[in-house]
Write a structure and sequence with these properties.
Two copies of one chain form a homodimer. With 296 residues, chain A is an alpha/beta fold. The first copy, chain A, has three domains: 84 residues, Arc Repressor Mutant, subunit A (Orthogonal Bundle), CATH 1.10.10; 81 residues, Periplasmic binding protein-like II (D-Maltodextrin-Binding Protein, domain 2), CATH 3.40.190.10; 100 residues, D-Maltodextrin-Binding Protein, domain 2, CATH 3.40.190.10. In chain A, the strands form four sheets. A five-stranded mixed β-sheet of chain A has the order 4-3-5-13-6, sandwiched between helices. In chain A, strands 8-12-7-11 form a four-stranded mixed β-sheet, covered by helices on one side. In chain A, strand 1 and strand 2 form a beta hairpin. In chain A, helix 1 crosses helix 3. The first copy, chain A, is rod-shaped, with a radius of gyration of 33 Å. Chains A and B meet through helix 1 and helix 4 of A and helix 1 and helix 4 of B. Chain A binds a DNA duplex (30 and 30 nucleotides) through helix 3.
Chain lengths: 296, 296
DNA sequence: GCCACATCATGCACCACACGCATCAACTCT
DNA sequence: AGAGTTGATGCGTGTGGTGCATGATGTGGC
């Protein structure tokens, strides 16, 4: 016994009914339905029997819709339309043309990689809903493994266990200096030249690898950086540099800012570039994710 | 080939899909559907094949809805709900509990018969839409024969060919006099006493039978009424009587009015009462009409 | 007014398809 | 590692939907 509805009515019968109601002639309707007249005649009779309702009045061997038939015709058409719609929705969702992509990204991705990737994706799949938010690398990897998000734009120093990933850009470290700084006129700056400076750095809490790597580079250059302040996000760090609290080492691309306040300079040291990666769970079979990865 | 939708999907499959999606276990779902597990398993496979979409991800012998499955589940539930609704609507329409009753009535019915009949009907069938309008007897009979209306409240002197009817009230003629009239103090008035009066009567255009009958009664009483004015509706006629243009003969019930302006008096003559009838077409098989006639 | 035609219903034979039973395959849990 | 759970598949069977032939009934033409 059916749980939701308990009538043996089927979509095939509804379709037959609609065609007969439109033609008001069983023979012609049968032709349209690629059936024989007797078969269709019985189909309608069965539908009426199932409903317990006469849909047509057989007056003088002619079909006329009854009041109940009129009412049912409207509903039947609507049902068939919606059934068709439901099928197409399922198929488009299957193809990844409909659905939601839950994307998270580190803040430094917002300046270049994110708009580039989203621009391409949105042009190809305009009907996919984008669920976007910034999130640190650490929390992204957790969320990816738990299936709470589909894809992350993050800073992976190496392959992450349990996740697939692909590098989308190599970003160098740059020096951020207050505009009036003694080194501000130079094109390139050696890391060792910053030995006596005070530093404003990314806080360890959000992404320990960035913080630790920068400190490591400084040690390799022969000094321990004097960190006077940490900032949770790039905008804050740049503001602190502009305020003259110190210099900073940032991952490019950097936020646009007034060159009268802060300047960015390349490092002459040959440090390995920082990788920005797209990461996802190999268990996640979301069609939308597949489409996104095809375009990366 | 189907005209509206061309997928072999059926409601039975949708129902099975919904139950499986709810249980996420084919065996338990099969129990709920009174089927065996293999049968249900094949039904789902057939549905997926028809749609060309995997609705479930078979991961480790366990069922999980895919993104397309999630989307389809919502639509499938909605479709089943609406299918059920459509069936109930058709059945209720068949029983005359839903639908429209197109009722027309002569103006004199509005004072008593109409509110009485409508009150009873509306209490019994509150969901039937009432299509109400005043209409003269002549136009009602035409409209009934053409099927433009379902039922009429009208003045039939005799059985109307092609229509069924039933008398619902017998209404006497009454005299309407200006309040200051010489006969206004009398309880009853003989028709012959009005021989010298001037008359305001129903116009022949709207209902010739009423006009002609009144003139006939006057002739039988020995005089030809001097008609100084005709009025299309009762309200107008009463206003003209109040203005002192003449007296009038009206069919009861009469509109309530200020007794300082106009008074109604019974006739002492033994004139046959005027009949108010309900009329309908015997060809009209509207279930709502049937219900209405049951209550008359 | 009678006969050919149109139209819906019904009897009958047939076959596809959905079903149940038995079993296989693969994963889980102890 | 073995028992249990769970979904898929092979196979035989019966029901139900189908086509063909025909009946019943109303319509229109000459």
């Amino acid at each position: 016994m059916r749980v939701v509805h308990d009538v043996a009515m089927e979509l095939r019968q509804l379709n037959s009914f609609v065609v007969v109601a439109e033609e008001l002639n069983v023979g012609r309707a049968a032709v349209r339905l690629h059936l024989t007249q007797p078969s269709l005649s019985r189909q309608i009779a069965a539908l009426e029997h199932d409903l317990g309702v006469e849909l047509f009045a057989r007056v003088k061997r002619r079909f006329v819709l009854t009041a109940a038939g009129e009412a049912f015709l409207v509903d039947a058409k609507e049902l068939l339309r919606r059934a068709d719609e439901a099928v197409r929705t399922a198929q488009r969702t299957h193809r990844g043309e409909l659905g939601t992509l839950r994307l998270r990204f580190v803040q430094s991705a917002t300046f270049e990689a994110l708009p580039r990737l989203l621009g391409t994706f949105r042009a190809a799949y305009p009907e996919v809903v984008l669920d976007l938010e910034t999130m640190t690398t650490l929390r992204q990897t957790d969320a990816l493994r738990d299936g709470r998000i589909d894809v992350g734009l993050l800073r992976l120093p190496a392959a992450e266990p349990g996740l697939s990933s692909r590098v989308v850009s190599h970003d160098p470290l740059v020096v951020a200096l207050p505009a009036g700084h003694r080194l501000a006129k130079r094109k390139r700056i050696g890391l060792a030249e910053l030995a006596e400076e005070t530093f404003v750095l990314y806080t360890r809490a959000t992404g320990p690898s960035v913080h630790d790597a920068i400190v490591g580079y400084c040690r390799a250059a022969g000094f321990v950086p004097r960190i006077v302040q940490e900032g949770a996000d790039v905008q804050t760090i740049v503001a602190l540099v502009a305020a003259g609290l110190g210099v900073s080492l940032l991952i490019a691309p950097t936020p646009p800012i007034d060159p009268e306040a802060v300047v960015y300079r390349k490092l002459s040291d040959n440090l390995p570039p920082w990788q920005l990666s797209v990461a996802w769970s190999p268990d996640n079979s979301s069609p939308v994710l597949e489409r996104f990865l095809q375009l990366v």
